[in-house]
From TrEMBL:
This protein's UniProt keywords: NAD, Oxidoreductase
EC nos: 1.1.1.399, 1.1.1.95
Pathway listed: Amino-acid biosynthesis; L-serine biosynthesis; L-serine from 3-phospho-D-glycerate: step 1/3
ACT domain ranges (all copies): 320-390
Source organism of the structure: Suicoccus acidiformans
Function noted in UniProt: Catalyzes the reversible oxidation of 3-phospho-D-glycerate to 3-phosphonooxypyruvate, the first step of the phosphorylated L-serine biosynthesis pathway. Also catalyzes the reversible oxidation of 2-hydroxyglutarate to 2-oxoglutarate.
One annotated GO molecular function: NAD binding
Family: Belongs to the D-isomer specific 2-hydroxyacid dehydrogenase family.
PROSITE patterns named among the record's database cross-references: ACT (PS51671), D_2_HYDROXYACID_DH_1 (PS00065)
Reactions catalysed, as given in the entry: (2R)-3-phosphoglycerate + NAD(+) = 3-phosphooxypyruvate + NADH + H(+); (R)-2-hydroxyglutarate + NAD(+) = 2-oxoglutarate + NADH + H(+)
Top EC class, one word: oxidoreductase
Name recorded for this polypeptide: D-3-phosphoglycerate dehydrogenase
Amino acid sequence: MTKQIQLFNNIAPKAFEDIEDDYFLSNEPIDNPDAIILRSAKLHDMTFAPETKYIGRAGAGTNNIPVERATEAGIVVCNAPGANANGVKELAAMSLVMASRNVLDALKWTDSLKGQDDIAAKIEAGKKNFVGRELRHKKMGVIGLGSIGGRVANMCIDFGMTVYGYDPYVTLRSAWGVDSRVKYTEDLQTIFSECDLVSLHVPYTEENHHMINSDILAYAKDGLILINLARDGLVDLDALEAAIESGRVGTYVVDFPEEKTLNMRNTINIPHLGASTPESQENAARMVINQMTDYLENGNITNSVNYPDVNLGVCRSTARIALNHRNIPNMLAQIIDFLREKNINIATLANDHRGEWAYTLIDIESDITEETLEKMINIDGVVRARIIRPN
Ligand SMILES: NC(=O)c1ccc[n+]([C@@H]2O[C@H](COP(=O)([O-])OP(=O)(O)OC[C@H]3O[C@@H](n4cnc5c(N)ncnc54)[C@H](O)[C@@H]3O)[C@@H](O)[C@H]2O)c1
Ligand SMILES: O=C(O)[C@H](O)COP(=O)(O)O
């Protein structure tokens, strides 16, 4: 049966080129989609349809998705880690240079010369008003050393800067990619008290809400350049405005403008361009489309933010059962007992958990009816049960 895929936002069409004919993808509303593929569209007010089992974020941040509600409905939410990281890193390079060299004010002034005489002479006379600083030998702080932060830290080493990194949750994989010359610190105060420039590369979560606040800004060196290409809610704007007014923060560069930042002095507002390149969009869309087809066709989970990654390869057995369930005692025993009672032989089983949730894939050697599967949903703790058959 044709699988219905609800698209939101502009998803790079090239990413669909390799998709099989049995997928129908549309930005027009679909009543009961099997999956949703989106970028920054906000899903918090959306009621999920019963058939929806997958949400793919063609990008990094998933704070636009009600992940907890999706989890309880047995919907796997995945993103595209690192797919747009180069795009954001390059925008960070632009932000660092733009803020250090007064580029925005200089461009506005240059533009104001339109229609005047002796433009070349006026430029030579006026350029002294826009003298800036070079990045080399300055101290740079990177908060969050994941896909983007790691790249930004390494880039700043290449600029000849002294780089400090802060990320209490860094994964081993990310840490391996960070240049050994990056000075790792375990406290945020060091970043603010040492650095001339600080760049934020963390997700927006409840815990990270207003992580940049008056307490931490009190440690900032005068004239700090603060770059936020990560998310709006990470910075307490009242505290930031006070720090700008006092001169503690010299320039704020933000990729998530709002009324307040548009009216704030010494602020460079970028219209959320971090991932707005065909390269990043195509990378991210291809990644989630591939992950989605593998989930719908084989039940395999890759790059999930709510369920564990579990993979049994291409489905070649008589049938495969996919179960989204709570991570509670006796779960697997109940599932295995159920199949034993139905005289269904298990060929292979894969199971893993992520916090309070778990996922089990079972390849079986005899067929299972939809009616029997329905009964599996009644096993305490199971929130979704699905049969997958080989193509
Ligand atoms: N401007 C844009 O267009 C754009 C594009 C991509 C991503 N983003 C934003 O950037 C964020 C980071 O993206 P990524 O691809 O690097 O994600 P990532 O998951 O690879 O890295 C995030 C890192 O932040 C760390 N972290 C989490 N909380 C932290 C805290 N309180 N202090 C320090 N470190 C903390 C994590 O351990 C992780 O290493 C995304 O969540 C998204 O909000 C913005
Ligand atoms: O989290 C992300 O990946 C970025 O904010 C990019 O968002 P976009 O896909 O809407 O450009």
